[in-house]
Design goal:
The structure holds 2 protein chains of 2 kinds. By secondary structure, chain A is α/β, with parallel strands linked by helices. Chain A has 7 helices and 14 strands. In chain A, the strands form 4 sheets. Chain A has an 8-stranded mixed β-sheet, sandwiched between helices. Chain A starts with 7 loop residues before the first helix and ends in a 7-residue tail after the last helix. By secondary structure, chain B is an alpha/beta fold. Chain B contains 13 helices and 13 strands. The longest helix of chain B has 13 residues. The chains are: A alpha/beta, B alpha/beta.
Amino acid sequence: MTEKNYNPNELLICTASRLMEDDTTAFIGTGIPMLAAALAQKRHAPNLISIFEFGGTGAVLEDLPLAVGERRTFHKALAASGITDIVEAAQRGFVDYGFLGGAQIDPYGNLNSTVIGDHDHPKVRLPGSGGGNDVGSHCWQTIAIMRHDKRRFIEKVDFITTPGYLTGPGAREKAGLPPGTGPYRVVTTLAVMGYHPESKRMMLLATQPGISVEKVIENTGFELLLADDIKENSPPSEEELSILREEVDKEKFYI
Amino acid sequence: MNVLEEGLGKMLQPPDINAFRELNRQKPKALIDKRMTEAEAVSKFVHDGDYIGTELYGTVRCPQSLVNEIVRQGKKDLSVAGQGVFELDMLLAAGLVKALDHTYIGLEVYGISNCLRREVESGRIEHCVEWSNAGIAWRFKAAAMGIPFIPTRSMLGTDTLKYSAAKVVEDPFTGDPIALLPALILDVGMIHVHRADKHGNAQIDGISGFAFELARASKRLLISAEEIVSTEEIRKHPDRTIIPYYLVDAVIHAPFGSHPGEMCYVYERDEPHIKSWVEASKTPETTQAYLEKYIYGPSDHQEYLNLVGKERLQELVDMVPEAEK
């Protein structure tokens, strides 16, 4: 394999950024989604409307926010309100995409960011839902950004913090979650996955540059469905990398 | 109503909306001077065993000078509405928290909270009841509305609901499942604002987080402000008054009250200071050393600011972009 001219975080950011469309609303959390949204605004989606949990709607992401409530999340924004206004907008169906993360994910896209081990006697106490559960409940399509290994991609998560397709087809609706919502993509340093339209189980759609299908399977702790035509993503372009390094994250906070 | 599911989590603060009304009736409606120091406000209004909440959070417009004073006075066995970063880390570091209505405690870009891990994994925190972020804000909203609960479609189908104190019921109108969140009435709420008058009329610039809801969900409300302004100044822009005076019990003048967090348009986050805490929080010994240096050592907020240094504070002011001042 030839020497790559990008690092794993840059690959994740560029891959997630390509999924962001112009003229859509996207619920953005701390970290990689912020960088991906900033890159998208500067490249192919100038009117990507970023939605930040504590009240920022439509910020121009000129500088990188370090927290979901800080001033850069409403820099030159269209509105600065508060958390109930934002999540109520999502509950009413206004938010197209939601970006999520977690310590564990299962084949139905359920995410754990609460505990490793038993809830009342945890091995590791994690930060908790925060806005994750709200995003996973109300946004039309959610995109999880994850590190890809067998400890994280597991058959059953220790705790369902944020709903994916729960136990399978129809389970979200049965639980009372809004019809037509749910996980859409999972972006990792190894691959991009979607969900089978009927079984709602995770399905490999594309591998990252230079990564084999076998390697993705090896690093997934459950049976991964395979799309008929698995693509290989193109590497981050010179244009993407130069915007990312010279404009989005000048201070090299994340990359 | 047909109850379909009940969360296993303990109801840490059962809402009594009639008692809340009675208490609100008793609150003075006269325009009295409520200014006092952090030490006076905490000593008068915060008690051992209270249920408290802060707004916005740790690194953003946070009532840090009030939280530091709670640590200084060692108010213990607290229950806390857990949406926080730096400020809740201080309470956890000092071992003052007994129970959490939890949604997020972490250090955002710097990762998970070592103090939260130590306190929960050791069992020193007796209850960790889970909620979503909006779930907690809506619980405040229900209290603010003066009603016992509020329905939502968050949390359904998950362990977040299973380990909460919410209930899922059959919507009596449609028959669909819907989650009911109990109102959350705080014993003490604390909010840091840009400006307030001596009566407690308070204004916030930028996003309002959940200040509107939390202010109206508090039995006792402490407002710390960057600036104390005249009532005439407040009356010039009444549309900006998010918290009217009658909600407020104490007004504390706290310049740089959110340090090391930011105050939008006024000063920026003190990144090296936050990083030094992230490092210090890694072991119990270095955690205690940090508390000694920055909280137990200084006798009040002014001494804390002296320790941080005038030059450093000026740098944080200068970092605010010119166009946003």
